[in-house]
């Protein structure tokens, strides 16, 4: 039976520390501010935004959510970002991805001032991460590293396999594991014999976006299994990329969905926002 990595509990502890810190900052007249720009009405995005708002409120972060119709032009969105770049009450800007097709997401991410880029997606921050001098770090892989640390899982010398190579999860995840001296393999949809590659892993991070894709055939006994996936099954229930019930008896550690990576992503977003206001 695997040990459960309780992301929700750990995120709660981080949130409690941030709450204390923000109350001290407020005594000095500093109020951290975060703006979230949500373009269109993707229902999956709605839950994420709602959870971020709850967390920001708890911590005492001034939280602004702009719900913007999908019909906004790219130029109008860029102008909004520029206004928040100039706004001294705002320490973090997050543009929820994905964006509607008529808007160039790369251009939008480039428009966010790197100092306010609490998602860590700006090419400057990505570049800093990949040369080994990170400042802002993408929240999901950052949260995963915090979970490994909290459970005293040392990546050094271990074989880590990352499934999925997105800019927001897979790629920065591989880099963070590499920085902790893991031997990292990145895999994707063209990888041949993925189960055999995954079975080599001491630490397996799964970020594909396909419900229950990873079965016990992918998992070495005792491995650490981190499930980033957020999918809905046919009944609308939230499920991960890992078939939890069959992998859990094989793994050494495993994250649940919900209650694993998701809450840590939000906690890291809050942490990077507060850190920015502190500066
Ligand atoms: N918990 C959290 O905080 C977060 C959760 N998520 C969730 O994580 C999942 C992944 O998100 P994201 O990284 O944005 O996804 P993307 O869709 O951007 O990337 C998916 C990756 O998975 C790979 N892939 C797809 N199918 C297969 C397959 N059959 N075998 C091997 N690899 C495959 C793709 O390969 P290729 O490049 O070859 O196409 C791609 O690299 C989603 O469920 C998302 O909702 C995302 C962000 C945060
Ligand atoms: N610019 C940008 N930054 C992101 O970080 C980003 C993004 N866009 N687009 C979408 C993905 C997805 N994502 C989630 C984070 C937390 C939960 C989350 O809170 N999950 C909880 C609850 C889920 C529930 O109950 O519905 C859990 O797993 O326990 C979900 C999804 C961040 N992303
Ligand atoms: Mg993130």
Automatic annotation (TrEMBL):
InterPro entries: Aminoacid_DH-like_N_sf, NAD(P)-bd_dom_sf, THF_DH/CycHdrlase, THF_DH/CycHdrlase_cat_dom, THF_DH/CycHdrlase_CS, THF_DH/CycHdrlase_NAD-bd_dom
Keywords annotated in UniProt: Amino-acid biosynthesis, Histidine biosynthesis, Hydrolase, Methionine biosynthesis, Multifunctional enzyme, NADP, One-carbon metabolism, Oxidoreductase, Purine biosynthesis
Source species, domain of life: Bacteria
Positions with a binding annotation for NADP(+): 164-166
Alphabetical list of SUPFAM superfamilies matching this protein: Aminoacid dehydrogenase-like, N-terminal domain, NAD(P)-binding Rossmann-fold domains
GO MF terms, alphabetically ordered: methenyltetrahydrofolate cyclohydrolase activity; methylenetetrahydrofolate dehydrogenase (NADP+) activity
GO biological process: L-histidine biosynthetic process; methionine biosynthetic process; purine nucleotide biosynthetic process; tetrahydrofolate interconversion
GO cellular component, one term: cytosol
Stored Gene3D superfamilies: Leucine Dehydrogenase, chain A, domain 1, NAD(P)-binding Rossmann-like Domain
Residue ranges annotated for the Tetrahydrofolate dehydrogenase/cyclohydrolase catalytic domain, each copy included: 5-119
Catalytic reaction annotation: (6R)-5,10-methylene-5,6,7,8-tetrahydrofolate + NADP(+) = (6R)-5,10-methenyltetrahydrofolate + NADPH; (6R)-5,10-methenyltetrahydrofolate + H2O = (6R)-10-formyltetrahydrofolate + H(+)
EC id: 1.5.1.5, 3.5.4.9
Domain Tetrahydrofolate dehydrogenase/cyclohydrolase NAD(P)-binding intervals: 138-278
Record pathway: One-carbon metabolism; tetrahydrofolate interconversion
Coiled coil: none
PANTHER family the UniProt entry points to: C-1-TETRAHYDROFOLATE SYNTHASE, CYTOPLASMIC, C-1-TETRAHYDROFOLATE SYNTHASE, CYTOPLASMIC-RELATED
Record family assignment: Belongs to the tetrahydrofolate dehydrogenase/cyclohydrolase family.
HAMAP family assigned: THF_DHG_CYH (MF_01576)
Purpose of the protein: Catalyzes the oxidation of 5,10-methylenetetrahydrofolate to 5,10-methenyltetrahydrofolate and then the hydrolysis of 5,10-methenyltetrahydrofolate to 10-formyltetrahydrofolate.
Subunit architecture: Homodimer.
The protein's name in its UniProt record: Bifunctional protein FolD
